[in-house]
Amino acid sequence: MMKPEGILLINKPPGKTSFYLVNVLRKILGVKKIGHAGTLDPFATGVMVMLIGRNYTRLSDRFLMQDKVYRAIIKLGEVTDTYDCDGQILSASEKQPSLEEIKQALTRFQGQIQQTPPMFSAKKVNGQKLCDLARKGLEIERKPVTVTVNTELVAYDYPFLEVKIACSKGTYVRSIAHDLGQMLGCGAHLSSLVRLQSGGYTIDNCVNLEDLNPENAPHYIQKSSNL
Predict the structure, then answer these.
(1) Which of 60, 116, 201, 226 has its Cα between 20 and 30 A from that of 141?
(2) What is the CA radius of gyration of the chain?
């Protein structure tokens, strides 16, 4: 019997790592070679494009290059070391930016922007992951990277700001939250994140991990016409 291969769209549950998804799917599908088209932090949810089988995992770079869309909730007034809700609070502010200040600041996150990768990230500098250095209390210089973003204000109810962000590969939404807080003079961090879309795949097409079993999982796997 041939092992299943193709693309499996998972709505990642909160509190789970991307590697956890790979391990669970290996057991469910009986397939060793499984990858994905872009990781999500444990607290984040939403679209995970899982690549099943060797013919698909070897094309992961092609999938990784695709644009993504997120819904993010940013908490104003608190700066954390990781730029997100899993980090330690470094500072707090009671300043409450006005809606006009928010709108003005968001104009800085449109089109091509320069973004410095956060220390708490998997990005490698001189062969070392930044997050490994950060956990040792070290901070090194990082070169800014050009990314393309489109940021849309969805709702604002202090201290929470909801935005929709369409962005290119390599964009750190955590950094957008942090940098926005610095611009507003109150500090901020990413409170929650949902990936709504990865390339042409949307959250509406995803299946929940808990709904999969060895009998039904192969039926959710789809082939790509772009291979």
Answers:
(1) 60
(2) 19
Q: What was the pLDDT predicted at 124?
A: 73
Amino acid at residue number 115: Q
Which tokens go with 172? 């750190």
Residue 1 or 123, more confident:
123
Judge whether residue 208 has pLDDT over 70.
yes
Kindly list the catalytic residues: 41
What's the pTM value of the predicted model, to 2 decimals?
0.91
Interatomic CA distance for residues 125 and 117, integer angstroms:
11
Looking at every residue in the chain, the average pLDDT score rounds to 91
Half-sphere exposure of 119 (CA within 13 A, CB side): 14
Note whether 52 and 25 are within 8 A (CB): yes
Residue 86 backbone class (left: φ over 0; alpha: ψ -120 to 50; beta: rest): alpha
For 178, phi then psi, to 5°, come to -65, -50
User: Once rounded to an integer, what is the mean pLDDT over residues 128-138?
Assistant: 69
Domains of the chain: 6-65+199-220 (3.30.2350.10), 68-198 (3.30.2350.10)
